[in-house]
Specification:
TIM Barrel; 391 residues; two-stranded antiparallel ribbon; alpha/beta; 10% strand
Length: 391
């Protein structure tokens, strides 16, 4: 049977669900707790109403911009996704090639299956690298050196993961649980996806965390990986550690995981070149604010002093437009590109990025703007600046 051609991230999500073992799909797809924040991230972008304008010359629309000093064909970055390479054969390499073809940056996770050397060798533009604060600072320094030597100029440092969130989907799939039943459950899920087993588990080896292969258990053992995360992610991290990091990293430094106005101010004071307004895609603390709801206040506080990116729930080029209206310079997307990778490989990501750009162009045309720099609160029916001033 010939299925419909994918036209939205949700279409690729459906493909990914059919192709991935259940525990892997849920790891990528799920959020913390009852997933209230996961849902509000998506819902709150949808509630922002655009101001349609007519009879304006919108010939020659230009979606190009610069993010972290890098030229981009649209204001979008592929966000770091841990274990993305488990969703398709050498998945991060496919993703960076798709990003290059679309003219947008790709961010490699510390715990990506493909290492920084492998991804940088496949890339046509500098790769961004995402890093966690690990208890062993020697490992952190080694990763910084490796990233810089590989040509990385932008470090995305995640600050909202002192410990992993409580993710019920993972528990239901037996991840991190002792005993025979959880193991049998995961084996059954793998065997139910023979295509994934052959293309990824067999032909996609090595299934190790490339940049961290000397320190982290194999990606094929999710239980051991969860134990390592629990042991090595550092709950003692403070702003003093950011100062330490700033001294050791000579490139651009973006702090990812800012959700509070005061923390945004501290990030700028600590020497960050930019921030990513993020609640980790709803994967950390369930019940916190959506990124759309806090972006205007943060932009009002630090928008003139630093570059602001935002992630969490962005599912279309119209959502990208909304984020720019609220004060962001650009966005990061995570689940949409991983769903596309799992569903259709590099071509799926390229198609997804083309859809985002087309939708952004349409939003610009029908709100009467032709340049990214012209997108602002005036393009919305209700000006968010008034609400941020009241708060």
């Amino acid at each position: 049977m010939i299925r419909r051609c994918p036209a939205t991230p949700e279409d690729y999500r459906a493909l990914a669900r059919r192709r991935l073992p259940r525990f892997l799909f849920d790891y990528v797809d799920g959020g913390a707790g009852r997933e209230q924040t996961l849902l509000s991230n998506v819902r709150d972008w949808s509630g922002i109403c655009l101001r349609q304008r007519v009879m304006i010359d919108v010939d020659g629309i230009d979606t190009e911009t610069r993010l972290a000093g890098q030229d981009c064909r649209q204001p979008l970055v592929l966000a770091p996704i841990g274990m993305a390479g488990m969703t398709a054969r050498r998945g991060e390499v496919q993703a960076v090639r798709a990003a290059d073809a679309a003219g947008v940056p790709f961010t490699l996770s510390t715990v990506g299956l493909c290492g920084i050397d492998e991804v940088a060798a496949a890339a046509a533009a500098p790769v961004w690298f995402q890093l966690y604060m690990i208890r062993d600072r020697g490992i952190v320094e080694a990763l910084l050196d490796k990233a810089w030597q590989s040509g990385c100029q932008t470090l995305v440092f995640t600050v909202d993961l002192p410990m992993p969130g409580s993710r019920h989907r993972d528990a239901r799939n037996g991840i991190g649980l002792p005993g025979l039943r959880p193991k049998v459950l995961k084996i059954g899920q793998v065997l139910s996806r023979p295509g994934w087993l052959w293309n990824v588990a067999v032909r996609g080896k090595p299934l190790s965390f490339g940049s961290m292969s000397a320190h982290v258990p194999a990606a094929s053992d999710p239980d051991a990986f969860k134990r390592w995360v629990d042991e090595q992610f550092d709950p003692t991290m403070t702003w003093a550690d950011i100062a330490w990091l700033r001294q050791r990293w000579q490139g651009r430094l973006l702090l990812k995981g800012i959700l509070d106005r005061d923390d945004a101010l501290k990030a700028v004071d600590a020497g960050a070149d930019g921030i990513v307004v993020s609640n980790h895609g709803g994967r950390q603390l369930d019940g916190v604010s959506s990124t759309a709801s806090v972006l205007p206040a943060i932009a009002a506080a630090v928008g003139e002093r630093t570059e602001i990116l935002v992630d969490g729930g962005l599912r279309s080029g119209i959502d990208v437009f909304r984020a720019l209206c609220l004060g962001a310079s650009g966005v990061m997307i995570g689940r949409p590109w991983v769903w596309a990778l799992a569903g259709a490989g590099q071509a799926g990501i390229e198609r997804t990025l083309a859809i985002f750009r087309d939708e952004l162009r349409i939003a610009m045309a029908l709100t009467g703007v032709t340049r990214i720099a012209d997108i602002g609160p005036d393009c919305l029916v209700n000006d968010p600046r008034a609400a941020s001033e009241r708060n």
